[in-house]
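Archive entry: two folds, one per protein. Generate the first.
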Amino acid sequence: MPRNEEIFKAISDLASERIMIIDGAMGTMIQREHLDEPDFRCIDSLKDHPKSLKGNNDLLSLTRPDIIKKIHKLYLEAGADFIETNTFSGTTIAQADYGCEHLVYDINFESAKLAKEACQEVWNATGQRKFVCGAIGPTNKTLSISPSVEQPEFRNVTFQELVKAYGDQARALLDGGADVLLVETIFDTANSKAAIFAIKQLFDDEKRLEVPIFISGTIVDLSGRTLSGQTGEAFLISTKHGHPTSIGLNCALGAKEMRPFIEAISRNTTSLVLCYPNAGLPNALGGYDETPEEMAEDVATFARDGLVNILGGCCGTTPDHIRAITKATKGIIPREPPKSIRPNHMFLAGLEPFYIGADTNFVNIGERCNVAGSRKFCSLIKNEKYDEAISVARIQVENGAQIIDVNLDDGLLDGPYCMSKFLRLISGEPDVAKVPICIDSSDFKVIIAGLEACQGRCIVNSISLKEGEEAFIERAKLVQRYGAACVVMAFDEEGQAAETDRKFEICERSYHLLIEKAGFDPEDIIFDPNILTIGTGMEEHGQYAINFIDACRLIKENLPGCFISGGVSNISFSFRGMEQLREAMHSVFLYHAISAGLDMGIVNAGALPVYSDIDKELLDLCENLIFNKTPDATEKMLVYAQQMKKGEKKIDTDANQWRNENVEERLKYALVKGIDTFVVEDTEEARLNTERYPRPLNVIEKPLMAGMSVVGELFGSGKMFLPQVIKSARVMKKAVAHLIPFMNKEREERIAEMGAEGNDNPYNGTVVIATVKGDVHDIGKNIVSVVLGCNNFKVIDLGVMTPCEKIIQAAIDEKADIIGCSGLITPSLDEMVHVAKEMQRRGLKIPLLIGGATTSKTHTAVKIAPRYASPVIHCLDASKSVVVVSSLLDQKTRQEFIEDINDDYGDVRSDYYDSLKERRFVSLIEARKRKLHIDWNHFTPVKPNVLGHKIITDLDLNELVEFIDWKPFFDVWQLRGKYPNRNYPNIFKDEQVGAEAKKVFEDAKTWLNKLLKESSDSSIKNKLRGNAIISFFPAASDEDDIQLYHPDTQSPTKKLHGLRQQSDKEHDQPCLCISDFIKPLNFDGKPEDYVGLFACGILGAQEIAENLEKKLMDDYASIMVKALADRLAEAFAEWLHLQVRRNYWGYSKNEDLNATDLISIKYEGIRPAPGYPTQPDHREKLTMWEIMPVEKEAGIILTDSLAMHPASSVSGLYFAHPQSEYFSLGKIDRDQVQDYSLRRGESVEEVERWLSPNLGYDA
């Protein structure tokens, strides 16, 4: 559709320059006019109107245009760039309350015309462009909530009625001159989808010029949800098909309360972000008390923190508020919207968001809400037992369904009515409605009914080419207008495809039609290449499973971005009634189909056996049948079905001698030795001894804490080591988990009887601990968590990538005594500064502990502590955290401890600033003169054997074992030998830690063997996998940068930026930069050198570790798995570099070094990593990810702070020149920071933020 490009460009240009301003409340200003009934009737057509009109503010555009225009100009003169038309209630639905439906066109037309005149007058007077936003309110009716408690499925408006009302309003607003259409105050996303539908219909069907759409939702309370229950992120996803120029939040909350929700919006959209909160929360009389200055300061922090592009006010705000906001945001650099959010992912939503991509496992679509596939469900629907039918959906979700498929196609049912009713009822059940819906029908009228009953982003199942291209494209466009993803069947004019080639041919044709004619994104396309029934006895059906699997491979290889689904139970339909057999067939079929590219499937969630648990004989029979290996496969399967029996397992429960002690001694022994085999039964024995332990809490306070006290004493005295402590914590967690239900029951009984609060707290204090936003590394944090827990502190572990708001809110909610922040990558340092600032802003008084590999005492003292008035303390390791926390919470030692810390950190700051004065730098010009000079005339770079990308998936991890560097493994466990026994294997000889190091190493070998064995077992789903991608490009140095060139065309592509050493050295010592190792362009302007890029990762460790933590409560094993995955990732990088030197690049084909030599870097060439000493700017990874499909091929993603996820990942560059070497950049001076900012095209402040640890001056 044609666009009004001038408007789009004008808004885009302004938004890139500064924070833009939208006006404040129209209603608040109208109230100040003290109008009465005559003011609403002073035109001839309304003088005798039968209803009272006072309060119908939209009418004032007709009856008192002077007042409305005056208000517009007050806002414009206060600094507003956008003013909203006086049409919040300008639909026929809202005007029906006043009997003014017939005036809707005039109200909207005249309102837009008035606003346009006001804008033009101010534009003429000031030279500043102003814009009219045609305001489209939510109406007073909702599609997702019933107005009747007795009839939860009832709605007092239909989707199409809303579409008509919104369309009429939008048409009049555009006719009156609106520059933008603003769909605002969305408390029900379904209503906004109707508005989007109407607007798109207007643009398409009436061939109007498209104008920008702004969308603004309303989070109604601090739960972070709309009135209809969606999270902000789900709201974003559900409206993304509207392609809003700007999206955000307004109303209901003040700026302070709105902040975390606008942060979430900002992180998850590529649109401009707008925010216009109320002037605080309403007071007891319904008014708003926040002053212009107070509100301006609050929203200005949004701007300073890069959260927003457009700011303004809603209820209670006035031109004075807008003037204050304009002043407070002047000169602030606006948010730069990200170019993409989760690329190559499908976005779906129920009440909550759901993403599908290469990083997600197979998606289970629940199949039981299907009248054709479930007799029970069919009976419930036919008998109008909808409550029980919803329970079928609920059980599916509880059993792991991530999407619910709903099919109500039956000749005796009114499909559209039943679909609409069922989905409306589901919308009132949050535990079901949280997941997306797959609307499944062969009747397109039923699909439309389903789409109009869902506020989330659904899947339509399905459309096909059965009725030809014209009908296919028409339906596809309609699905897109409703905002859904779409399943496309391998079905065309000639019928259903059964053969592989036909399946692919139809999917390929559909793919191009959808993208080129219907405007689909590939990620919104799901192909169903038809899972057809096997085992029918008919020979021609024998290949059906193989054909589907082969078609999946072809689709994935040739149709990028799309997804694949299928109805899994179809495969076994011949064996209906034999459920165990069918479930085994489904599991085996899925195992092979998923490896071929199947992303999701309609299955009975919870009824799939684990592939590796299937009886060997049955497994062979399933494989035989699925792959059509023998003619009698079906017959053999039927024979087996008659003989199926369940097996049983026996558990050996022999006890050792210590089992003869009393229960207290047994619990102590189990805790100290880390034995969890009998801890539940021993804990239960203690609980039942009510004479000794009258309450369950007493079991924790006495025998369990007594055992943990011994553990703490042994650890504190160095007689017990970290691995043993973590094993002890595992035992403690199991014991406490057993007691919790009894404690909860007792508490409820006490409250019921006595009104007691039940505030029993056996802990020494509460610590909230988290890895900060953008960082995925958690081994160190988890160890601290365990050690603190073992010392009787209550630990609230918030996990990784934790937003600042969540940390602070958890501390408030839990009444925490201390907050601990952890991080491994350098951008985490800046996030920790942000946490400290926010703690100060929110008025917290509790200590903040800082830890993690990238942190330091100096950075904590210089950069973090000054931002927070209460204690900020750096903790070197887990053992130190206990001392620090204990000292801070001991009232006798607290004050003296804090004073000592303050004095110490004061000295650190003084020394730091003194060192800045003493530091000597050479200028950047001089440093470049001192570059490493290589004689390029006598060096011919080796051309790589592979140009472009080389992908490695599912590497045999056994290949990596000999490349493991074990020293960092012992560092994880804080086992540090003394010279000469510091390194592996000499650490085993150390008198103090040697014995424990040996034990841990034996555990590591056991776990490594287990992990390696599972990694090569195709039947196991959650396992370690090794993926990597390598790319080689022609390259040439360009001063301190490296220009890359396309391997085929030799045209310039991306540029890698380098930084040069500036510390003054001996004159014969070069000031190095990575570009020194690359040859410049030759005399013909052609590149002759090459650079390699790589990323490799060990995937699956997080899932294995989470299972160990949550299901088995085994922290020791969890940390062990993560530590081993880290070692394998580094070994992977070492192995990969060897392959590069010998084979892929081949510049060192005859290299013959052992593993020790490799770890000692005795080879030729280097592989420096962005974010580390040679080039400490983590943002260079963004360039790498742009030119290599890392996420797609290797499954490694970048977080907001550019940490790699999974954490067990390594990336870097390859340099081949023999003189290339690792070096540390060290500190750099202002002239280089300014030069670097110019080369990158960004502000000096942004560079200083990312390179903070390397600045040789105080920024």
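Generate the second and append.
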Amino acid sequence: MERIGDKLLSWASVLDPEARDQALATASLDIVHPYVALMPDAHPGLGATVGSVIPTVGAVIPAAVGLDIGCGMIAVRTQLGAVDLPADLRELRELRELRESIERAVPLSAGHYNDVITPSAEARVHELEALAADAGFDPSDPTRNWRLQLGSLGSGNHFIEVSLDEHDRVWLFLHTGSRGVGKNIADRHIRIARNEATARRLDLPSRDLAWLVEGTAAFDAYLAQMRWAQRFALLNREEIMDRVVTQVGRWADTGIVEEERINCHHNFTRRERHFGEDVWLTRKGAIDAGSGVPGLIPGSMGARSYVVVGKGNALALNSAPHGAGRVYSRTAARRTFTVEQLREAMAGIEYRDTAAFLDEIPQAYKPIDRVMADSVDLVEIRHTLRQVVNVKAGNGRIHDARSGEICWNVGRSRAVSVGAQRARSGGHAAHQRKRPTGRHDRHVSASPFMKPEPEPGGDVPPLRTDLSDGALIERARRGDRAAYGELWQRHAASARTVARSYSSLDPDDLVAESFTKIYDSILAGGGPTSAFRPYLFTTLRNTAASWGRGRRETNLETLESFEDPASSDAATLDALDRSTTAQAFRSLPTRWQEVLWYSEVEGMGPQQIAPLVGMSANATAALAYRAREGLRQAWIRAHLRNAEAEPECRWTIDRLGGYTRGKLRARDTAKVEAHLDDCARCTIVAAEAREVGSRLALVLLPLSAGVGGATAYSAWLSQGAPAVDVAMGATGLPAVLAGVPEVAGGAGGGATGGGATGGGATGGGATGGGAAGGTATGGSATGSTAAGSGTAGSSLGISGIAVGAGVGTLVVAAAALAVFIAVPNLNAANEAPPAVVAEPAIDAAPAPVPAPIPAPIAPPAVPDASVDVDIPVEPVAPGPPAPPPVQPVPAPPPVPVDDGLPAPSFSADTAGGLVDPLLTGTARAGASLVVTADDDRTWTTTADAAGAWSLVANDLPAGTTMLTATQADATGEVSPVAEPVAVDLVTPALALRRSGHLVWHATFTGVPGASVEVLLGDSSLAIVELDDSGSAKAVALTGDDELADALVRYTAGGRTGPTAGAVVEPG
């Protein structure tokens, strides 16, 4: 950030001198307070700089809002992936069909609108009519055709794009505003503001900086009409996006599930409070970037775009850039660049190849990478989008150089009625959707194969918020250690199972070292981008091999193979690596490889895979289906590459994908079918390809985990290991991932994680793995699966362990981040399972009941001597009568003695010696109580009207402390000292062992069932639940040595006990 003068702050590292001078002129206005903020994409504009944020007091500048009121972006994340586009995007002909269908559905170019109001736009038009009536103006004056403008794109830098994010998910993205009706409203009020400035004889740097004064009729009229135009712009984007969604769904032959929709403005003004004062904040080419506010920042034509969330930077007035920002005017761009340069910049992107778009060439804009780098303290990047299809429009005659087609004002009167849509699509109804109630509503496009959208209040399935492995990897790449902790949570148990197959190597250390190596690689820009588990298995195998060479150890599983070198692991893996199946798998897109690993190798279902790939279960099922089909085709192509084939065979195989999807032309379809009828070899190969998925586990597991690791892992899965729970990890994400570092988030229960159910291995604290209740190499252990709520603040129970308040995700000290993750405990006794009692069969004949055996009669019990019992005795003759009793003389009544104020009475509750005592007692009503420890510390309180009192004697040390108490009444009289009460407190123990520079193994011991809090300085790292044996294990991910200074203490009922330091064991 750069301060320019007294009232201008700039976040633009590249700033045109004209834009700088224009911004200084705006900042000099008396109505500006406290300063103007320039965004990274700032460039000259009408009156005020585009990319400027202008706070004004008591006035609004219409030209600063701009001519295209409410201009902005809208984006939709769909359930589709790259797998739903042509393979490797090579078949651009199919993408061209998609582009042209969008061009037919949406009127493009300046001055070109709909011919009729479509049914989908009708409800939106009615809403705008009612809004205008409420505002007291008629938008038809002077824009009589404004209703037909709704659902049209415009020209210039407005666009429609089909993009892929970093996980190859399909996004639909477009940019447009309030069209001609918005411009007419802006022009009218800019003129009014100029006239008022002239009448007031204002000396302005530019007449376009004239303002309207708050409280005047002109101000109120502009504000009402501006808000109407802003609503028009938003609904215009909604209408266009609905049409684009429909066209994409028809092209992909599937209903589109909108998993996220974001709609944001960048030309508007509204009342906001900044630095303690209410201002009219005008964002001219800037988006709202308040804390947690979603936003969209597009790049130029052909460049990347970004889905972001605001950081709430108060200094930047909670704002961020709206795009790349021009560096060449349109005229200068046309003079400077060539069509060949535009084609080079758009390589691999389907667009209409025409010189009409030369002024939109990426080189005419600031590099979007520079803009985003300048925005690092303004927004956080959620997704990076790369264009696949680009739709734009120019003015007048446009010539497509590739097709030779001449289009006159692309989009004119095309696909503007439902009737026309039905005629072209064979009767399909146009996509319709109720107006959303928020920016993140989930919408489902109409489709005969999908359930209709439920009515409000109906049974709506929840939107998945799980982050995929790929998303977690990207967060870890940006230094988010909590995201890497979630990856550990998901995959560590599987890794331990593989690690235990490597002879005497310590499995925990092997897993820790492998995770550390991957983390280092990710931070260095390498490592996996998705499919984390197979990458982890390969790293485990390589790490074990390097450790084995260093220790001159030999894997036990290879001893029997020395006589036959061809059967060694190396030879086996080399053969598998050269196999057709491996070649076919590696040729697939990363997204397909990931879902095939989990579905075909690990045997998971869509519900279990969904959180790992960041998709809904239905979308995951569709992705898996397409991936399996893609594998078959890839296997066929690889088979033909490895064998000699006739040209006709190669031609046929190359088109089998399109043939399967019904995308071939009639002539090509007939040719393929004729060849398959005549060629037995191609027919057999195609049939074998259908079974290739079942062979994946036999090939991929050994390649990634080694032969021994594959055997152990396959046995673990086949014996009922909780692959689902392990894969799912925590059901929610830590608060650090959700942007709330103050609250440890809800990586809650419902997940087994870390090797939950089933056996483990002894030695080195290895946990997880093995079958449920079964054994694994190196030992056995029982385990248990804990359930939780999955909500923030809940605990994740694993073998009696719970890391509460977010499963150990936390911010430590200044900038260090540690992630605590619970792992299964091996200290539980190996108890035999309870005997299973068979249920009697239904309707079975009852078993014969044996005759009852009479119980022996017990002799009468002899009464206890202490019990009064009437015992019969022999009668005795009466003696002489007793003399009459003497009447006692009554004693005088006692005289009351005033003993003064008595000592109070009290008791201490320490929750079993764990936490600071809660003292409760009785005293005289209203008396002041003073509790004193044997180290002279004191605590005070007052008795209530009933004489009851309580207090917590906090910060007592471990060991025994004697407490006494006195009371004093209102007269100042002080009671004697009460009898001392002994308080005995204990502390838990924490043993730390470091493995590499990232992983710490933590072992907690103490009172069974107690809760232990981990502290570092003033920060609470985690709450750990001890199991029934009084122990727990966890893993901390942090590269900081200061974890050795961690303290532990018991916690219960909001109270805590004395602390004890960690003991660091040698690694």
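Annotation attached to the second fold: The first strand starts at residue 2 and ends at 3. The first helix runs from residue 17 to 27.
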